[in-house]
Every structure is written in structure tokens, then in C-alpha cells.
């Protein structure tokens, strides 16, 4: 096959609407789709030595019903290395566990969000080229949406969290920046939950997978006949979020002209649907996520200056997990607790050797990847605790394990880049941030553990310029 030729996905499905959606999204992501209506046809294609072999298979549970796991097992036997993506209408993690144990790589819950489908497809390629264990899996584990659920003591993370908690009290536009998988959407949800608008709606608008021409209509809505194909009137997400918060995911994907229009809406609150003769005012707070802060995106020519200015000074950057080594152990235990509460799974511990292994990996997929790897390990573990044996691919990548992060000054850096000791004031500030994070902002407990009075603690916070909002 020519190297630049679109990759082939075998879709086993019957629903015409779903087939059209998947076909369109896959096409925009560089995939061709071959459709079969049943499992036997899929197996026959895999067995045909003259047929082109697909790079991934997507199976709708509606096709096989109660025999879905059996069919997955047969497909896995026929194509041991091929990623299998399982589509289900059930939100129960129990079905995901059964499908994974049968051989599925990932699963998607109907209705399938466009960005979720694209992520699953791209991850399936990484899965085929890298290793089974590191293939991302987005399991649906519900978590509380508050700042107490944001686990971590690393100073950069606590600073970001403090800025977010302070920003939650305001009404200005706010941009949460960071690499994929760092928890941007979770933090944005927590900001909304802690804001004066918490009783209002939170509408999340994913731009990934949408054609640029469709984004404006989705944001602002349109009247019937506004453009070819506009057969019905549509309400935009800006109107749906009136009185609450609109989270725009991947802000940098907005076309330039739409960026100008959104900046004007932020300043005036005026919304005019496409094709409408009237406009109206909405009361919406705009949150957004992006790969980096607004000013950097503007300098790179990705974000229009007028929109970047709307977020100027209101950007929060979440650090990648590789810069939060001290947080991997508590995050691991937190994720294991959540995973253990899912039907069909159990609460597992984790050994120090396994933690050292997890701390030694760079985690390019950040929190999302850590949670996925732990979920997969728990599914197949038959002991009471995860050990190094449950992460064989990590052991090959990490190699010889160094000292655990928990054993290196509690996450406080003692030496600067020049090799000399940092100032006592800088170290003290890091220790206080660490304590605030560890005790979840309970300032009386922080003061008691540090051996100082509460008033002394607040004086130090002011002197060191530390925001205790977290």
C-alpha cells in the first residue's frame, strides 16, 4: 500500500445514520471505511488472503448483541495485532471490562462524540505501532467536579490550581492551556462548579472533527434556509449556555473570521444566528482550552490578536505529568480507587516497585494515559496489588529504575539550574505550596503541620506572593 494512502477501517454496523457519521469523521482523519453488516462477513474478509487488510476494526454491539464478546474473541484470533474498537449503547463499565478481556482495544459509548471517535482512531494506530499496554483507553469513570478532586502537590500544579480557583470567582473569559491529557476539561468543569454560575448550564463545545464551515453555525445557530442544507432552524450553543458557561474545546481550531466574531460577542454579549434579521443579548461566560496560552498562540499566528486580547492575563497552564513526578503515586492510588468502584472490577493496591516504574516513565499522554494504563492493568490483574509484572512494556521502556520521586525531597527542588542551592525563601515557598496541596487547602491543618500559627501562615503567604485560593 502507498505510504500516503488513507488507512483502512472495517466497520461492522447496520445503522445508516451512524455509518454516515463514522464514515465522514473517519474520512476527515485520513481513514477509508469498508462496511459490512455482520460478524461473519467481517471474519470472511479477514480470512481472505487476496483482500486488503484493515488497520482497525470497529464493531457496533447492536450487530452481535449478546454474542459481542464472542465475536471480538474470534476477530482477535483471526487478527491478533489489529486494534478492535467496540461501540456500545451501555454506559456500564462492566461491558467494557468484558469486551477488553475478550480482546477489544477501546470502546465508545453512543452517541459518539466526534472528538472521541477521532481520538480512538488515532490511538488505534499508536496501539498498532507501539505496544498493547500503552494504547490509550478512555473509560467512562464519573468523578466529582470540584477542586478537591484535582490531585497533586507539585508546585507548578498547585499554582495553576490556585489561579483557577481564584478565576472561578470572576466572570471574565478564561483559557486553560496544556498538552493533551493534562486534565484541561476537568479543570474547566471544576471552575464552573466553583463559580457563581454553577447553577446555570455548562455547555461543552468540541471543535475537533468539525468542518470549519460548520463551527459558526454550531456556535451561533441558524435560521431555516440560511444556507444550502439548512432545512431546520438550529439554536446555537451560545444561546443554550445563556445564564451559565460555555466551554470551547480547542479554541485554536476556530477559523480567523469566526475568532473576530467571537471576540466581538465576548465584548458585547450580542449573538446573531446565521440568516437571522435580528440579534439578541446573552449572558454567557466563555471558558476555553488550547494547547498553549493565548499570547503564544497569537505570536504563532494561530489566534487572532483581538481574541487573544480577550483572554490576555486570563490563561492557566496545566503542567504535563512528566513535570509532576511527585504526583504520580497519589494520582495512581486515586485512579485505582475510582477504577475499583466500577462494576466487574475490584480495589487493588500497588507496590513500591510498580510505583517506581510508573514514576520513571515520561507519560506523553499525561493523566489520560496513566488512567488508561492502570485501567488495563486492573482488568487483567489476578492479584491483590499491581506489581512490575503488570507493566511489562513500561519496564522495557524505562529500563533501570532510579530513586522514587517520593524519596527526593518531597518534590521540592533544592538546587537551581546553575547547580547551586536555591534561596531559603524559594524553598520555603515550595514547602508551603506542597503543604497546601497535600492538605487540600485546609489552612488550619497546614499551619499545624508546619508548626506555625495560622496568622503567621497567612503573613508568609502574603510575603511570598502565594495565592491560597486552592
From TrEMBL:
Domain of life of the native organism: Bacteria
Gene3D superfamilies: 1.10.8.60, 3.40.50.2300, Homeodomain-like, P-loop containing nucleotide triphosphate hydrolases
Subcellular location per the Swiss-Prot or TrEMBL entry: Cytoplasm
GO cellular component: cytoplasm
GO annotation terms (biological process): phosphorelay signal transduction system; regulation of DNA-templated transcription
Modified residues (4-aspartylphosphate): 60
Function: Member of the two-component regulatory system NtrB/NtrC, which controls expression of the nitrogen-regulated (ntr) genes in response to nitrogen limitation. Phosphorylated NtrC binds directly to DNA and stimulates the formation of open promoter-sigma54-RNA polymerase complexes.
Protein name, per record: DNA-binding transcriptional regulator NtrC
Record organism: Croceicoccus mobilis
Amino acid at each position: 500500500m502507498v505510504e500516503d494512502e488513507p488507512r483502512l477501517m472495517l466497520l461492522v454496523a447496520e445503522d445508516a445514520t451512524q455509518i454516515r457519521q463514522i464514515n465522514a469523521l473517519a474520512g476527515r482523519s485520513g481513514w477509508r471505511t469498508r462496511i459490512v453488516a455482520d460478524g461473519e462477513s467481517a471474519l470472511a474478509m479477514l480470512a481472505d488472503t487476496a483482500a486488503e487488510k484493515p488497520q482497525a476494526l470497529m464493531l457496533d454491539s447492536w450487530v452481535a448483541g449478546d454474542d459481542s464478546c464472542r465475536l471480538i474473541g474470534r476477530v482477535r484470533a483471526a487478527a491478533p495485532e489489529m486494534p478492535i474498537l467496540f461501540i456500545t449503547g451501555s454506559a456500564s463499565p462492566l461491558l467494557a471490562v468484558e469486551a477488553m478481556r475478550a480482546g477489544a482495544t477501546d470502546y465508545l459509548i453512543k452517541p459518539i462524540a466526534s472528538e472521541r471517535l477521532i481520538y480512538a482512531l488515532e490511538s488505534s494506530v499508536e496501539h498498532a505501532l507501539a505496544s498493547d499496554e500503552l494504547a490509550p483507553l478512555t473509560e467512562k469513570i464519573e468523578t466529582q467536579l470540584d477542586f478537591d478532586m484535582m490531585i497533586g502537590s507539585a508546585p507548578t500544579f498547585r499554582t495553576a490550581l490556585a489561579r483557577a480557583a481564584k478565576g472561578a470567582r470572576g466572570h471574565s473569559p478564561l483559557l486553560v492551556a496544556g498538552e493533551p491529557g493534562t486534565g484541561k476539561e476537568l479543570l474547566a468543569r471544576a471552575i464552573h462548579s466553583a463559580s457563581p454560575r454553577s447553577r446555570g448550564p455548562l455547555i461543552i463545545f468540541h471543535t475537533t472533527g468539525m468542518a470549519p464551515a460548520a463551527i459558526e453555525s454550531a456556535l451561533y445557530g441558524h435560521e431555516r434556509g440560511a444556507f444550502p442544507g439548512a432545512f431546520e432552524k438550529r439554536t446555537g450553543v451560545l444561546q443554550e449556555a445563556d445564564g451559565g458557561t460555555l466551554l470551547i474545546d480547542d479554541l485554536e481550531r476556530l477559523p480567523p473570521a469566526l475568532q473576530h466574531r467571537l471576540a466581538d460577542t465576548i465584548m458585547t454579549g450580542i449573538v446573531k444566528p446565521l440568516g437571522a434579521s435580528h440579534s439578541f443579548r446573552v449572558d454567557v461566560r466563555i471558558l476555553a482550552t488550547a494547547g498553549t496560552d493565548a499570547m503564544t498562540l497569537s505570536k504563532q499566528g494561530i489566534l487572532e490578536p483581538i481574541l487573544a486580547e480577550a483572554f490576555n492575563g486570563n490563561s492557566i497552564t496545566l503542567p504535563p505529568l512528566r513535570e509532576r513526578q511527585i504526583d504520580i503515586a497519589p494520582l495512581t492510588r486515586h485512579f485505582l480507587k475510582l477504577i475499583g468502584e466500577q462494576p466487574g472490577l475490584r480495589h487493588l493496591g500497588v507496590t513500591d516497585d510498580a510505583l517506581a516504574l510508573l514514576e520513571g516513565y515520561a507519560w506523553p499522554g499525561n493523566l489520560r494515559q496513566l488512567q488508561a494504563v492502570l485501567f488495563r492493568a486492573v482488568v487483567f490483574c489476578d492479584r491483590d496489588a499491581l506489581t512490575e509484572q503488570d507493566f511489562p512494556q513500561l519496564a522495557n521502556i524505562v529500563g533501570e529504575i532510579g530513586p522514587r520521586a517520593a524519596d527526593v525531597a518531597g518534590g521540592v527542588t533544592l538546587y537551581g539550574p546553575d547547580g547551586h542551592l536555591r534561596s531559603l525563601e524559594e524553598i520555603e515557598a515550595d514547602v508551603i505550596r506542597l503543604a497546601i496541596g497535600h492538605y487540600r487547602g485546609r489552612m488550619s491543618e497546614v499551619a499545624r503541620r508546619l508548626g506555625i500559627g495560622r496568622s503567621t501562615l497567612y503573613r508568609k503567604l502574603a510575603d511570598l506572593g502565594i495565592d491560597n485560593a486552592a
